Amino acid sequence: MANHIVLFEPLMPANTGNIARTCAGTDTTLDLIEPLGFSVDDAHLKRAGLDYWDKVNIVYHDNLAAFMATVHDMSRLFLVSKFADQAYTDPNYTDVAGGDFYFMFGKETTGLPEPFMRQHSEKAIRIPQDDSHIRALNLSNSAAIVIYEVLRQQNFNNLERSHHYENDKLK
């Protein structure tokens, strides 16, 4: 079983780099649906995910259809959208034996394609926010919020709960 953060045609290298860092720290697979709005050699991408890029399991997909062909159980796919009715904390993510969970985020400017969202509206989850003040939360922050709720429900499966530091590092 693995958790996946899926980015549909991401545009901003800093967001993708920050999400890659979160994936490295949570043992989460990062799925990137092309085309990407940047080169994976981009300096901003490397800076945001510095020292972590090689520690992330990254799967590239040529397009949305190619990604969807890899999802074997549609009940384990969730589309993160500010237009969803269901909160991201509502679904039960504890069935770790049932296979992979996928959390798909749209591109920073337009989100997920509207026809795709209409077709799979029952899969949509949202992070509550005050829409009168902002259009949307930052993509990398949203990915972190969602994956940590998933991991919390999974009792932080296989992640260290605490670290022991030498005395000089706690000052």
From TrEMBL:
- Residues annotated as binding S-adenosyl-L-methionine are V80, G106, I127
Annotated localization: Cytoplasm
GO CC, alphabetical: cytoplasm
Q: Which Enzyme Commission number(s) are listed?
A: 2.1.1.207
Provide the primary localization: cytoplasm
Instruction: Name one process (GO BP) from the record.
Output: wobble position ribose methylation
Q: Where is the tRNA/rRNA methyltransferase SpoU type domain?
A: 4-148
Query: Which Pfam families does the UniProt entry name for this protein?
Result: SpoU_methylase (PF00588)
**Key words of the record:** Cytoplasm, Methyltransferase, S-adenosyl-L-methionine, Transferase, tRNA processing
The record's annotation in InterPro entries points to: Alpha/beta_knot_MTases (IPR029028), SpoU_MeTrfase (IPR001537), TrmL (IPR016914), tRNA_m1G_MTases_N (IPR029026)
Q: Which Gene Ontology terms cover its molecular function? A: identical protein binding; RNA binding; tRNA (5-carboxymethylaminomethyluridine(34)-2'-O)-methyltransferase activity; tRNA (cytidine(34)-2'-O)-methyltransferase activity
State what this protein does.
Answer: Could methylate the ribose at the nucleotide 34 wobble position in tRNA.
Assigned protein family: Belongs to the class IV-like SAM-binding methyltransferase superfamily. RNA methyltransferase TrmH family. TrmL subfamily.
UniProt cross-references to PANTHER family, sorted A to Z: TRNA (CYTIDINE(34)-2'-O)-METHYLTRANSFERASE
Q: What is this protein called?
A: Putative tRNA (cytidine(34)-2'-O)-methyltransferase
Q: What is the lineage of its organism?
A: Bacteria, Bacillati, Bacillota, Bacilli, Lactobacillales
